[in-house]
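Sat 14:20. Reprocessing the chain from the morning session after the first attempt stalled halfway. Input below, unchanged.
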Amino acid sequence: QLQLVESGGGLVQPGGSLRLSCAASGFTLDYYAIGWFRQAPGKEREGVSCISSSGGSTNYADSVKGRFTISRDNAKNTVYLQMNSLKPEDTAVYYCAAEGTSRVQAMCVAMYYDYWGQGTQVTVSS
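Finished this time. Tokens:
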């Protein structure tokens, strides 16, 4: 069974850091682009950051550029989202998703993604 499991969320003070992990089971991530999306209460889901299957292309929302870094370790079948300088507006449920594609460019378009995790809560508050 193909499954994505997010971990690493939690409560952090403004300015703090968290690293989210997205682990795959039942399939290898080598041929999948991976995206991180988030949804805050009362808001639409938004693409946060995405990485191509090769890892050669990444994409970030303007709101997180310079603060978040996406990376992948295919040997561990895991993708990471390092989040630094967190702000209260980063509070949301974060989801990872996988798209089976060899597209060179990473694209954070939710409808492209086939498999989704259950999400992990990130709360930034003092």
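The two ends are 40 Å apart (CA to CA).
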